[in-house]
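note to self: dont lose this again. the chain is below, predicted strucutre after it. 361 aa total, dont forget to put it in the shared folder this time
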Amino acid sequence: MKKIFLIILLISLNLLALDVRIKDISNFAGVRENQLFGYGVVVGLEGTGDTTQNKFTFQTIANYFDKNGLTMDPKDFQMRNTAAVIITAVLPPFPQVGSKIDVTVSSIGSAKTIQGGVLLITPLKGADGKVYAVSQGAISIGGFNAGQGGGGIRKNHSTVGRIPNGAIIEKSQDLNFTAQKYFTLNMNNSDFTTTTRVVDVINKSFGPIASASNSRSIRIMIPSKFSTNKVRMVSILENLKVNPDSKAKIILNERTGTIVFGENVKITKVAIAHGGITVTINPEFEVSQPNPLSKGETVVTEKDNVNIEEPEAKFKIIENTTTIGDVVKTLNSLGATPRDIIAIIQAMKSSGALQADVEMI
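---
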């Protein structure tokens, strides 16, 4: 049975230019998400929490009791209903105090599952060490972990869960969007051609207000008619459409046999030979039995029959090509699998016949 591999072809023809919104290929400087994290404890587990080896869990509970006027030695604890966790969340742009965000809760100890647990109140900090949100609530893992040993049943990852709207934002970021005198638009991919096209589209719509600082950044002045309504200007600007350019590039993944061809990949005239050797080993067993009523032993001898097949190598000449389809048809005509094609592509790149960047992932 032949193995089926995946070949992905990303083909963009100039006759069918693909226009995308500026908002899908860029972002405004300062308008970004920020990562939050915190350390907390989950309680209410059914004996599936951390063991006594995780001393930090019991120390955390001891500190919690101490703050509430109850002094206890962590050595006296035998609480398998608790688990130490790390909480992560994403603070969206322009966060408003009192609004809620989702959080992810991940066990860092030896807990078997945090199913059914409740997260105690936990402050969430940013990279600057300041508290931006406070999290608490019941955890949903979207699965279960039941039973023990070989009779256990498990669905999904039971040591990681989420709390929808589990954190309340307590601090906003200092970004006065309406006070800015100009915007900086950063392209997701650094490309002089695409950046120039974006500048042309913006200037055609708003007048000569945009200029490129480099292959990624565009400075956009704010016209007087939008000085009091900059949000509307951004809304119009980010919905303008442009045809982004791309480099000739091929992505190869030898582990999965995946090949991704980008646009503008061209090959100069080259000859390719493809052949393979198939080795087949069939073991055979010879049994020698003693005569009846004798004291001999049965002897089993293994013998390997080795068969080697080497098909005739095929030479294929690839002319100067202008489309990805020509390249793929030619390689497929050699009977090559994607793994073979990966080797062929690398060889063509080394020979200088392939006019594209090749990246292994």
